[in-house]
Amino acid sequence: MKILEVGEGRSFAIREVSIPEPGPGEILLKIEAVTTCPQWDLHLRHNSPMFPGHQFHYPYTPGQPGHEATGTVAAIGRGVTDLAVGQRVSTWRDPGHKRPGCYAQFIVHKAENVIPVPPNLPAEATAPVELAMCVGASFLMQKTMGVLENRRFAVVGLGPAGLIAAQMARAEGASEVIGFDLSEKRRRTGILLGLDAAFDPGAYPDAAKFDTAIDCVGAKTSVEWLMDRTEDVVALFGVQRESYNFAPRHYRLRLCGYPGHSRAAAEYAVRLIMEGKLDLRPLVTHHLPLESYAEAIDLLERQDAIKVCLWPWKSEEACRALSGGGS
């Protein structure tokens, strides 16, 4: 089987290794499609820590940082009773970057870390379920708080997570969903996915307030900009690397940290997909073979792509056909 091994900068290699065998409680997943994660892939390329105290080592763990994948169960280990060979599943939890990742043709995964997905959908429609689970965890928290239905909702950062958040806010009955991003292209995509309006943050009137909001950037400037314009709840989804100033003027504001990953959040995301309320396909703007990994990350770096779908079994020509003749 083929597996990707990322080196420093733009360097990488495609290794030929033996197909692993699943142990107790594990499955062997034949990966059909795997989507990039801009956070991990771009930080890995530039040897930039993901969070304080984190450090990359090269060459990186084979198959990593791939963790958003859809495929079929190729074999099951002892004790796995709720999955069957041939079943279509997606990964919903990254087991950690010391284990082989999903930039490969096969991967051994804990059975509890995958979730059945509709077999009738194209693979790119369910490969990013892991990211949808992450965003879904924040929305389950806000749903429990009762701050979504009939609320004026803001999303800052219309990258992959923000575009998912916009759809979840709409699914939960927000009265109005407004998006913010510096990129005009991403603002247009947000409108197509159901935003009522999308703005460059610098062009938005200071007097207009929101009831509830989610920050999908993590930068101090974006969080504090949102805190100044939200009346009730700001959920923090973007990776936090700085301290935020909670000032006296924020006396009524509730600032909510990330609640953590959960199977319930994965089930929530898949249910929204099945109900037609969450569409992950528009997040995938380019299709490439696994051998074109460096090109995929170039596209992310230039913000020419939102997500790139890598196909471990397809040729460049077949991927080009998926993209309608484009990249």
Structural summary, described in words:
The protein is of the alpha/beta class. The protein folds into 2 domains: 169 residues, Quinone Oxidoreductase, Chain A, domain 1 (Alpha-Beta Complex), CATH 3.90.180.10; 126 residues, 3-Layer(aba) Sandwich (Rossmann fold). Helices cover 25% and strands 25% of the residues. The strands form 3 sheets. Strands 3, 4, 5, 6, 7, 14 and 15 form a 7-stranded mixed β-sheet that branches. It starts with a strand and ends in a 5-residue tail after the last helix.
Salient structural properties:
six-stranded parallel β-sheet; globular; single chain; Rossmann fold; seven-stranded mixed β-sheet; 327 residues
Mean pLDDT metric: 95
Distance separating the two termini:
25 Å
CATH topology of the largest domain: Quinone Oxidoreductase, Chain A, domain 1
Kindly provide the radius of gyration, computed on alpha-carbon positions and rounded to a whole number of angstroms: 20 Å
Tally of structural domains: 2
CATH homologous superfamily placement of the largest domain? Medium-chain alcohol dehydrogenases, catalytic domain
| CATH C-level class of the largest domain | Alpha Beta
CATH 2nd-level architecture of the largest domain:
Alpha-Beta Complex
Note the main sheet.
Answer: 7 strands, mixed
Q: Please identify the structural class as seen in this structure.
A: alpha/beta
Helix content: 25-40%
- Total number of strands: 15
Q: List the helices and strands in order.
A: EEEHEEEEHEHEHEEHEEHEHEH
Strand composition percent: 15-25%
Q: Count the helices. How many?
A: 8
Any low-confidence stretches, pLDDT <50, length ≥5?
Answer: none
Query: Which of globular, elongated, flat, extended, rod-shaped describes the shape?
Result: globular
